[in-house]
Specification:
The protein has 2 domains: about 180 residues, Quinone Oxidoreductase, Chain A, domain 1; about 170 residues, NAD(P)-binding Rossmann-like Domain (Rossmann fold), CATH 3.40.50. Helices cover about 30% and strands about 25% of the residues. The protein is built from 14 helices and 16 strands. The strands form 3 sheets. Strands 3, 4, 5, 6, 7, 15 and 16 form a 7-stranded mixed sheet that branches. It starts with 11 loop residues before the first helix and ends in a 9-residue tail after the last strand. The structure holds NADP nicotinamide-adenine-dinucleotide phosphate. The site of NADP nicotinamide-adenine-dinucleotide phosphate has 33 residues, from helix 2, helix 6, helix 7 and strand 9.
């Protein structure tokens, strides 16, 4: 008779005592890399981080989420220089395998709640496209149990941006919200969160091809920027739930968008918006700004929140951050997502309740991140791209 040996069980003590490998697989910023045109390089010999500090834990990363900031980082002054040769990425999901000394006493002070060895956690750190990362406990929370590591890794940056943008934009129950870029990483989660936070109506702008995705996230109406005339003429029931005002997708470039037709389509809304969440405008010429067309649809005194903007908006925002003086344009706020354990916990609760469901277009292996970068740069991602950082079977388990 075949006897199946019992599976080994690992206690937290075993986990803490287990030897770590000396080297790990990561993707680093490498300007001189000739292997791809993205300034990144896959390495199999990057040192595994040392023991975590007092307010830190060592996490074995299972998955890492990608964001546009990852490919923009090399051109960010100072920060880009500081990250040279270091692993890319911010978002991670994984398990705690080492605790910093004296952490138990600090748990409450850091707001992370009780996190222990073996716990599944998710959050943000510098260099998440790695197998092991050291993370401040103030930058993580327990992984939502309902989500896989891949789904949880898709949440931090895009989710925190959405949550904080809606909050800072004065989101209230019953609000009417416009989400520009409703199918991207930040946009699709913004639509879901606005609904979860009690929005009475959410209208999304994205391409015709992704209208269904935005509607599935909860958008009551979708206006296709690449077919706005069609959307405008077909929106006879703009106040009913789940209108999808799109036709057959036309082009996919900004140049082909018809802004006055978007304004026309929006004018069919029975009331102005209480909040506009713009995830598309940026300093890059390829990222279109809808502000001129949509701002007239914003209720007097309400806020236009954006995640990116032109040079002058960034100057104003950074002045505000540096000296506290609000130099931003009136009723306009450029949100800079902050890593807060309490917000990560709030998102985990939303995910466990089923109101937050990150959509992942593709899960990529660490060695193929440059392909993901090319896709990310195209600005055509539906939801999120996630890197599977865990190796199966792991050589070190
Ligand atoms: N300030 C912060 O803290 C912060 C945090 C996170 C992100 N950001 C910034 O916010 C922006 C969005 O980030 P993300 O992660 O959501 O990016 P993303 O996933 O790359 O967003 C791409 C989405 O934008 C949509 N899009 C592209 N062109 C559009 C157009 N002309 N009109 C309407 N939608 C358009 C695309 O939808 P279609 O394919 O349907 O066209 C695509 O789904 C980026 O600039 C990023 O750097 C800032």
């Amino acid at each position: 008779m075949l006897t199946i040996p019992p599976l080994p069980t690992y206690t937290h003590k075993d986990m803490a005592a287990a030897a770590l490998p000396k080297q790990q697989h990561v993707v680093v910023y490498d300007k001189s890399s000739t292997t791809d045109g993205h300034g990144i390089r896959f390495r199999t010999d990057y040192p595994v981080p040392t023991t975590p500090g007092r307010k830190q834990v060592l996490v074995r990363v299972h998955a890492a989420g990608l964001n546009p900031v990852d490919f923009k980082m090399p051109s960010v002054p100072v920060l880009g220089w500081m990250r040279r040769g270091k692993p890319i990425g911010y978002d991670f999901s994984g398990e705690v395998i080492r605790m910093g000394r004296g952490l138990a006493q600090q748990e409450e002070a850091t707001g992370s709640g009780s996190i222990g060895l073996g716990d599944a956690v998710y959050g943000r750190c510098n260099g998440s496209v790695a197998e092991y990362v050291v993370v401040d406990v103030s930058s993580l929370a327990r992984k939502p149990g309902r989500l896989s590591h891949e789904q949880a890794a898709a949440l931090p940056t895009a989710g925190l941006s959405g949550l904080q943008a809606l909050r800072e934009g004065g989101m209230q129950k019953g609000a009417r919200v416009l989400v520009i870029g409703a199918s991207g990483g930040c946009g699709h989660l913004g639509v879901q969160m606005a609904k979860a936070m009690g929005a009475a109506r959410v209208v999304g702008i994205c391409s015709a091809a992704n209208a269904k995705l935005a509607r599935d996230c909860g958008a009551d109406r979708v206006i296709a920027y690449d077919d706005p005339l069609n959307s405008s003429s077909s929106s006879s029931s703009s106040n009913s739930n789940n209108d999808v005002d799109v036709g057959v997708g036309g082009g996919d470039s900004v140049e082909e968008s018809n802004n006055s037709a978007i304004a026309e389509a929006l004018a069919e809304e029975s009331e102005p918006f209480d909040l506009i969440y713009d995830t598309v405008a940026s300093a890059d010429a390829c990222d279109h700004s809808y502000e001129a067309e949509v701002r007239p649809m914003l209720r007097n005194g309400c806020t236009y929140v954006m995640l990116n903007g032109g040079a002058s908006d960034w100057r104003r925002r950074l002045t505000r951050a540096a000296i506290g003086y609000n130099a931003e344009r009136k009723h306009t706020h450029l949100v800079i997502a902050a890593t807060r354990a309490e917000d990560l916990k709030k998102m985990a609760t939303m995910a466990d309740e089923g109101t937050l469901n990150p959509i992942i277009q593709q899960v990529i292996d660490t060695e193929n991140v440059s392909e993901a970068f090319a896709f990310l740069k195209s600005r055509r991602v539906k939801g999120k791209l996630v890197v599977r950082t865990v190796r199966c079977p792991r050589s070190d388990v």
